[in-house]
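ENTRY TYPE: protein
CONTENTS: sequence, structure tokens:
***
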Amino acid sequence: MAHSDTQYRDAALAMLPMGPAWNRNAGSAMYQFIWAIGACMAVLENDLSKIALETRAPFTDALISEWETDYGIEPDPTLSIEERRTNLLQKTQKKQFPTETALIQLSANVGYEIEIVQHLPFTCGDLKSQCGVIDREIGVTRSVLGIIVHSVTGTLSLADYTNYIQSFLPAHVVLGIRVAE
């Protein structure tokens, strides 16, 4: 629930110190300044709420093309936003992060003996705020997968192997592969 400019104005006026320099009367310069700040804060909160929705696939509108590209879907502007979002959600729900054992087995299937050295999620770009009693969080979560290749008995090049493994991973996973020395 967004706050109104009046709610922001009233909260700011309540925090002002008492005294003749802090005139709270309607029409005073201080009152007009606080009213303008309240209007800006209401717009900012509304815009941040829209941005928060764009970071979630089920609600995206403006960034639908970027979401589709991240998941390997060719953006089709002839479809409605709802149809495009449905296609996106079907694609995102199909890819689950495989277990370490599954990744080792997938690698072995193409002749790669690997060791997984990093399988950690991390978060970048978080903005946390509290509005009343509601905590709001905007951010991008990425997972890192680090792989060391110990031996290769198959014919897949390292680039093809990287593409092969990436095809099993969700779009938010950053893949780092290096060959053991």
